[in-house]
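Morning F.,

Quick status update on the modeling queue. The single chain you submitted on Monday has been processed. Sequence for confirmation:
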Amino acid sequence: MKALSHLRRVLSGAAALLLLALSWWAIRGGVNDAAQARNLGQQVETVIRFACGLLSVVVVVTRIRSHAWARPVRIAWAATLAASAGISALVWGPPMLHVALLFVAVSLLLAWAILWALGPARAAAAAPAAEVEQRRPTGKPG
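Structure tokens below.
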């Protein structure tokens, strides 16, 4: 059981490092492509890629610190990853729908694998029962 726990931590750390590398790649690529974007589709893809990079960092932060919005951030990250991959095949070069659909499928599979390796999204812990009891009115006068 201890080996499984250790493996889970290693996978989670590797996924976090992969997300940070993806963040660097996406933000850097978004900044570089912003100057080269010649049409609306390229501009939209650049913004989505930049958002994917920012969300990659937020996913890692929500893994380190439990937040109630960890799950929505993960979903938004996976959506921006897939959208950026799919749109890029349509707007940078000759539009190829079958390639775009393949990119979307592969990116969603990659997102699922990374999120699985990160582990479950945890909401912020509720207040301990002792604190709740102290805040609850007792009904006794002053």
